[in-house]
Amino acid sequence: MEIKRVIPSGYCKGVVNAINIVKKAKKDYPEENIYILGMIVHNQFVTDELSKMGIVSLDDSKLSKQELLETIDDGVVIFTAHGIDDKIKNIAKQKGLITIDATCVDVLKTKEIIKEYLNNDYDVIYFGKRKHPEAEAVISISNKIHLISSKEDIDELKIDNDKIFVTNQTTMSFIELKEIFGYLKNKYQNCIIQEEICNATSARQKAIMDIKDGDVLYVVGDAKSNNTNKLVAIGKNNFKKVFLISSKDDINKKDLIGMNKIYISAGASTPPILIDEVIDYLKSSSEF
Question: Fewest beta carbons within 10 Å, which of 23, 62, 109, 282?
Fold first, then answer.
């Protein structure tokens, strides 16, 4: 059995930067309580490791960011790599909290492009995942931003404005984008489309698409991670079996019976240690 790591895979620069920002905050404010408004990146292992440092991640799908913020009375609040509503940031400052923004530069870039078109009287159609923090941060900018997640959402759109700009969440699948953008173009023929998948996401997706001889693909990552889930979806196009696993403990040896070439990829928020452990486990086992 042949074990191969897909390159690139794992941490991207934006994730590394966000985690480093949190660690620096711990050094800069040793006497302060430090909170993250959400998961700094979508990986439970990372959240658990930060918790061991005394850093509290406030993440509850039943509560809004504002409601989570209300539970913080003092200290440092860090906004995650996915971006944040400017209103939430202002509320934190009004409460007298020390605020630190770890938003990924690619997300910031997309937000600035959207704001530029809004300032020029465009409506914006934004393709993203509902309830994802990146999408929530973007649509908070204006009520002229229309979030879509499917063709059905496009069918329901009623935009009278002749000036329409179309873009997307940075962690979507380029396969999905091609289909969605084509469908939008048929409905709004004069719309301006700008694809904004970040380089790290597209590189990881294309690396999987380029593999033509694989039997099994393991994607290491968290089920909450959108870019990780997109790797799984893309892998299903050219692998016999595809599994999303959070660690080596999720591997079922029975799945590998009769399989010859095993590839391991990982989402952009997956720590290298988890990927290495999966590869070492597969290579060291003689029972498959």
Answer: 62
Which of 261, 263, 242, 252 is CA-nearest to residue 287? 252
CATH code: domain 13-103 is 3.40.50.11270
Q: Selecting from 3.10.450.50, 3.30.70.100, 3.40.1010.20, 3.30.390.10, what CATH number does the domain 106-193 have?
A: 3.40.1010.20
Return the structure tokens found at 195: 């694809």
Q: Where are the beta strands (DSSP E) in the chain?
A: 2-5, 34-37, 56-58, 76-79, 98-101, 123-127, 145-148, 164-168, 192-193, 216-220, 241-245, 261-266
Q: How far apart are CA 267 and CA 42, in angstroms?
A: 9
CATH number of 2-11+199-284: 3.40.1010.20
> Do 13-103 and 2-11+199-284 fall under one CATH topology?
no
CA distance 123 to 90: 25
| 230-250 core/surface letters (b: 16 or more CB in 10 A; e: else) | bbbbbbeeebeebbbbbbbee
Catalytic residues: 134
pLDDT in tens, the chain (288 residues): 899 999 999 999 999 999 999 999 999 999 999 999 999 999 999 999 999 999 999 999 999 999 999 999 999 999 999 999 999 999 999 999 999 999 999 999 999 999 999 999 999 999 999 999 999 999 999 999 999 999 999 999 999 999 999 999 999 999 999 999 999 999 999 999 999 999 999 999 999 999 999 999 999 999 999 999 999 999 999 999 999 999 999 999 999 999 999 999 999 999 999 999 999 999 987 555
pTM assigned to the model = 0.94
